[in-house]
Prior knowledge:
Radius of gyration: 37 Å
Number of strands: 28
Low-confidence stretches: 367-371, 745-773
Distance between the termini: 145 Å
Shape: elongated
Strand order of the largest sheet: 11-1-15-21-22
Helix content: 40-55%
CATH architecture of the domain at 174-359: Orthogonal Bundle
Amino acid sequence: MKKRKTTRKKRKTRKKNNQKRRIPFFNLGMVALALILAGLILASYITYLDTEIRNRFNGKRWSLPAVVYARPLELFPGLTFTPGMLERELQLAGYRKENRVTASGGYSRHGATFDIFTRDFHYSSGLEKSKHFIVSFSGDTIRELNATAGSHAPISLVRIDPARIGSFHPQDNEDRIVLTRTDLPSLLVKTLISVEDRRFYSHIGISPIGILRALYADVKAGSTVQGGSTLTQQLVKNLFLTRARTLRRKINEAVMAILLERHYSKNEILTAYANEIFLGQDGNRAIHGFGLASQFYFRRNIKDLTPDQIAILVGMVKGPSYYDPRRHPKNCLRRRKVVLDVMLADGLINKSTYTQAVSTPLIQSGAVQSGFNRFPAFLDLVRRRLQQHYKEEDLTSNGLKILTTLDPQVQWQVEKQLDDGIATLERIHHRSHIEGAVVVTNRENADILALAGGREALNSGFNRALDAKRSMGSLIKPAIYLAALTHGYTLTSPLEDTAVSVPVKSGHPWRPQNFDRREHGSVPLYLALAHSYNLATVHLGLAIGLKTAIQAARDLGLPGTFKAYPSFLLGAASPSPLDVAQMYQTLATGGFYVPERAIDSVLSADNKVIKRYGLSVQQRFPPEAVYLLNCALQHVVREGTARALSSYLPAPYQVAGKTGTSDDLRDSWFAGFTGDKLAVVWLGRDDNKPTRMTGATGAMVIWGRIMRELHPQSLDLIPPPGIEWAYQDGERLPYFTGDLSTKQSSESQHSDSPEIQKSFHDLFQSVRNLFHR
């Protein structure tokens, strides 16, 4: 029995020992399997991170906004331009004011003399290198331009690089100037590495020694002098990760930093960091990279930064808001000194440079006005024109350069006179909530020089210049009269300004009236237009045919489809101010249709020309007929509904124009052109309630105020071949050659010479004008 029990015990002991031996083997297998799975997961995750890094770095790293520029400013001796105008435009273009100009992008002013150093700029014609020159004024005129070097030789023409007036951003609203490695100044690079990552060129992406060294330096200095993270880690955090202070994020940051270093060179990483780093905020626009920060804070290209300015930018890496030189100058100065101390200790600058840099005061140059769209209404037009040829992604991510036709000098006057003028009119007419829109173009080539979509110039809301479709009233009449002149009428053809009743299929007959509720009998065509007689216009339009009148308006450039209703003859069409400007542009260019142009050219991010927007000219009307009409439009200003314009542009200025007023005084219009400019002004209320203003008492006032400040050229119409002149009732008028044959006999019966007739006519007009002021 004992033997059996002993054997049984041995078997149990042996079984337990076997189980003890088997359990460790089983656990090791599980651990090994878990490690393999964890390794696979980790390898997959690292592969995922690696793929994400390479995709971002091998592809397009940043979405670069399209940058929009105004026209370049061309200066030459004899140009009418004031010192104040020049300085304001230099400020808009981001030039910095200095006591002594030593680098591009700077200027100094001593009374009426400017020392200017322009910047390199790529136009569609190629790179234009910077120039250093002197501008001297005599009153309101440029007296001379001279080079600064050598013999101070005179210069006939100089072009100042255009102002950056806006950008088309992606949704993240980041902005940057992308630099290459060679663009980065050596002192900036060395200072950045000394302050942020001393072992940058030797570590593998992370630096334990660097962390310990930074901790020691911070304790010794009593403040944060050096960063613990490497530049590579900071770049990874900015490009790929959030700012959450979690263990997972820190692990991801370390792994991705090592992977980044494995695939890319130190110079590639450093350049990406210099372009990515966040360095401030400009409203909704985020300032990224040292290139844009240099322009934004100092109005300098990065290559022109001084040691103290480099110290400020490097110091701001630690906290862009806290060390902002404009908002927190004391914090900025303290941080600057810390960085300058490092630069001196590491031998990056000598003692003399250090002393000068530490004692240099912060220069408050003001923010560069080139960020978020200084002229939103004009930029809205540019964007719409671009969207006809480019996708939205092209405009917000490919870094296009858009060179436009905007003239800041004209735009500023438009904005000021529109707002101030409407405020004055509201007081005079006891009205409120009056709005307006203005379009100004170059008379010869249809370049849009300025555009205002409302009184609040910086408001990017409803753009009335493009989207306010309002009844144009008598602005349509020149189209009807031009059609008549091309169908056998002359300026002295008699028109009946008498009551007219036009049957209407679905209601009572249409019975239009003159504005003064009177009939004027038989009047010559040019006076019917000058005084904007409705009844005479309706008779004329019905005589030539509604379809003929409508086609003339369309040929002038008025867009849309119009039904042949008699009310069209008195302005039932509802175009935008920009549409009206296009219509009158064809008159201003002598019958040649020239599409309005807001864009000159488009360049790629590497300054290659993508598209040029050249002139397109198409003859739509005989020059002789347009010449006769434009002479009649001069009579509108000289003796008709726009005669009060003489108080803004007195003799010898000649202007052609037309007033327009819609029913119940809801819309007030004026369109006109001088020798060099065309402008259209609309006034009205957004709720379409009456303004109590006619075209002459509202829009024409704003038009006159604008032109008075722009000092336009007088409109001296040059008659084309095929024009002859004769007097009619003391008025010297042009005719088509051959149309005078029926008048010559009656002309010969006049006993008075043409000169005497003209003298009596001028005296009569002078007396008449006294009673119409």
